[in-house]
Design goal:
Layout: H1 2-30, H2 65-68, H3 77-117, H4 121-151, H5 158-176, H6 181-205, H7 215-247, H8 253-284, H9 295-323
């Protein structure tokens, strides 16, 4: 009974991700080029003269050769740039939604079946920790691609298609290997190696011109990606070492559990580093967003408040003393008459 419900939940999650991807494609298809609407009693909502789509034949005008041959928009430099800018983020997010949905569905089904049959307490905790690490991996990959598509955009190559499938392969392999320690560590080491290549590729494709005159933000962004590369390298060597030790039966179960949580901590560090980098970019360009306050933010806000109060206090006292007509005069010695 439990397996049936696990399969149903996985199917619902996968179908939900697929519907989100299809809705994203339909929105880009129909919302980007809305048709003119006519309301009774008002002027027709026609596009501006310069915004008329190419290929639409106006009444009373002869059909152009391009329109009659089915060419909607001739290719030019500006048209090609516009298509790349519109296609790359949507293609990335749609592809990642499908891959992450498949990985999440497989993880849900197999985790439920593996956790039911695990009898030793330490192995049960290890399998549960591995499932949590897989879910964290899905969140990290999704967040990195959301941040990537909002900050940077470049001309796509074959690596832009290759890397998402490699990441999805590593995630699905980890989901299939949950509960089998050696195979799970090998899957994590392969995924970490792909993540190193993905971060390095992002670093070399992000150039100074993407940040215009804000070169300091560009340097900070590069440093943040470098930190994430080193964290992925540490995760790769840790998982490879654990796979070797577990394959020769020299890694105790408790040490295995501790290593899994060490990998989880490194994953949280990668996620936090990406969030800090995103906040710096948003702050530099004045983009408002909902964010949590870190201890560094609280300390800086406190120092700013103290500095503002220290500078504004004398002027505030003077302005209140000058502007307040009902202020009580200071008591002084009375003058004696006659």
């Amino acid at each position: 009974m439990g397996r049936k419900w696990g399969s149903r939940i996985a199917i619902v999650i996968s179908v939900g991700f697929l519907l989100v991807a299809v809705a994203n494609l339909l929105r880009d298809r129909y919302v980007s080029n809305p048709e003119p609407t006519f309301v009774r009693g008002s002027e027709p909502n026609l596009p501006e003269p310069g915004q008329v789509r190419q290929g639409v034949i106006r009444q009373g005008e002869p059909a152009s050769p391009l329109a009659s041959s089915g060419v909607l928009e001739p290719l030019s430099t500006d048209v090609l740039k516009k298509r790349i800018i519109e296609t790359l983020p949507n293609a990335y997010l749609t592809l990642m939604a499908i891959i992450q949905g498949a990985a999440l569905g497989i993880m849900t089904v197999l985790a439920q079946s593996r956790l039911v049959h695990e009898t030793p307490l330490v192995q049960y905790a290890t399998t549960l920790s591995q499932v949590f690490a897989i879910g964290l991996t899905i969140v990290i990959v999704t967040h990195q691609y959301l941040m990537l598509t909002s900050i940077a955009c470049w001309v796509p190559t074959v690596f832009d298609t290759f890397i998402p499938f490699l990441l999805g392969f590593g995630e699905i392999w980890m989901a299939l290997a949950a509960g089998r320690n050696t195979s799970w560590w090998i899957a994590l080491s392969s995924l970490s190696l792909v993540a190193v290549f993905a971060f390095w590729y992002t670093r070399i494709r992000t150039v100074k011109g993407m940040f215009a005159a804000k070169q300091r933000i560009y340097l900070q962004h590069h440093r943040s990606i470098t930190v994430q590369v080193f964290l992925c390298l540490i995760m790769f060597f840790t998982s490879a070492t654990a796979a070797v030790l577990d394959s020769v039966r020299t890694c105790p179960a408790l040490v295995n559990l501790v290593l899994v949580w060490g990998v989880i901590v490194m994953g949280l560090a990668i996620l936090t580093q990406g969030e800090y980098d995103q906040n710096r970019v948003y702050d530099a360009y004045g983009i408002p967003r909902l964010r949590y306050r870190t201890p560094h933010d609280r300390a800086s806000m406190t120092s700013q408040r103290r500095g503002c109060l220290g500078r504004a206090w004398p002027a505030q006292v003077v302005s209140q003393a000058v502007r307040s007509p009902t202020s009580t005069p200071r008591a002084g010695p009375r003058r004696r008459h006659g």
